[in-house]
Fold:
Amino acid sequence: MHLPDIYVGLGSNLGDSKEEIRRALGFLKGLGVSAWAESSIWISSPVGCPEGSGDFHNAAAGFRLEREMAPERLLNLLQEYERRRGRIGGAERNSPRNIDLDILYFRGEWRNDSRLVIPHPRAVLRRFVMEPLAEIAPELRLEAGGETAERIAAILRVEQAEQRVERLV
Structure:
């Protein structure tokens, strides 16, 4: 049995955010996957966003691709999808967006260059990322020797208790 070996975080806070998440999950499935896991859709209050930003809908997807692909190629595909859905390059950091797709983990590989850092460097600091990820991959360790996704989510539930992060569907 093949298990997911790539994990992507999804977020949206413009337009019909739940539909944007569902549409993006369909896009990811369309890349050709032999294993698939998707979290519930979660809602979270904005963190580090410009004044007046709306709540986010978040999710996580785990999959295994049917064909070989470098993480840089996957990043290109995700960014092209974001652009097609209205994402503007160079916009203010954490600005509202129709869809945001982040590679959280890619087959245990490490990258740290100007375009791509994997595992995602801020995932373990973000409750709105770790809750959906822990739902589908509780034993995943983003960092070698690090805590499991489930344990990190539990720690963040306490440390970031003031942030609203709730499972919707």
The chain has a mean pLDDT of 93.
